[in-house]
Design brief:
The protein is mainly beta. The protein has helices spanning about 1-20, 40-45, and strands at about 35, 70-85, 90-110, 115-135, 140-165, 165-185, 195-215, 220-230, 235-245, 255-260, 270-275, 275-285, 290-300, 305, 315, 320-325, 340-355, 360-375, 385-395, 405-420. It has one domain (about 1-420): Beta Barrel (Porin), CATH 2.40.160.60. A 14-stranded antiparallel beta barrel has the order 2-3-4-5-6-7-8-12-13-16-17-18-19-20.
Length: about 425
Amino acid sequence: MVRRLVFAILIFAFCSTYAQDATVSPYSAFGIGDMRSVRTVENQMMGGLGMYGDSIHLHLNNPAALGMLGVTAFGVGGSHSELRVETFSDQQNTSVTNIDYLALAFPIKMQRAGLTFGLKPFSSVGFDIENQTVNDTGVPVNTLYTGEGGVNQVFLTFGFRLMPQLYLGATVNHYFGRLEYARSQVTEGVAFGTLDERISDVRGFDFNYGLIYTPKVTDKHTLFTSLRVHTQGNLTSENQQRIASFVPLTGRDIESIDVNLDRDLLRFTEIRIPTTYTVGLGYGEDKHWFVGAEYSMQKFSDFQNRFLEIEGSEYEDASSYALGGFYVPDYTSLDSYFSRVTYRAGVRLDNTGFVVNDKPLSNYGITFGMGLPLGRDVTGTSTFSNVNVGFELGRRGTTMNNLVRESYFKLSLGISFNSKWFLKRTIN
């Protein structure tokens, strides 16, 4: 009963958080917002690697890792980010706190097949951009762009061991959410301002396939290879548009018209998110250390969102590089708690695929963190449950071409509870 109550509280808190803005980045104005690429805290702290799996942790990115699962794993993760947003002449500080994922994984057959389901964000929108210009007659014009909302992702994953050291898996993702954009403009000396408000309700499916091959190189050492294919997402957007005039001092509407989108075939549009391919290679010693690298590529130049196109934005092919690993001094130690701690670190470099004012938008980060065991039972055996704390220092964008540069510090916290629920008892 207590477990069910805790689970219900976490779900309520999670869904409440999703109703709030999960980003404050001006770059969330492009595409369908900040693409979150949520991973468990354990994977985030290794530069975002998605290739490593084990028997006690759930996995959000590589479905093949579920074939290794040996216990039921319930995971929840959240983060707090401190950001410094800079232009060529100004800067300001802000922050945002999110719950990032909620998932439950359990073995169907111990270390042979497993199932995961859960909820996580896919993209977030939250921006407030003011642009001051002059028109052809030299009169000042003030334009304000605002946006909020996002797209969330419910997923169901199945993974299994096809043969010794070869694991396969697949995930089906269902997307849902609402994006709200507004553009208001006020011209000096003109009594009324103009408003263009657009709303998109987004729905759709896609799939994620994974493969992990872990041949033994020596008695102690294992080679890790992985391949992931996240198929093209063809999301459907049901759209609304409203044009209005308003009083600048009060914001009160004077006249409002709902645009006939059916006439221009814009009532229902497609949001096309191209396929992503990821390959990985790593090497390590079981329960002691691991180091690996991954490369991802996406033909993001094919991205399409006709209804919410933003002036000054273009798309190019995206890519990502990640390098990371972990180290456990001695997971069997009875004398030293810190010898059983998992220490993780990594780096990553992303070419996001967004081109704003003719400048490609890049993002890089340095990650590090610890996995803290929650204790042992009365027999001295590890309970496997753990708390994962992670840190990330990064930078996105540039101050060139009238853009903004975001420098951020991110603190992540993930809790993984493990038990032998769903496992058939062989001895009473």
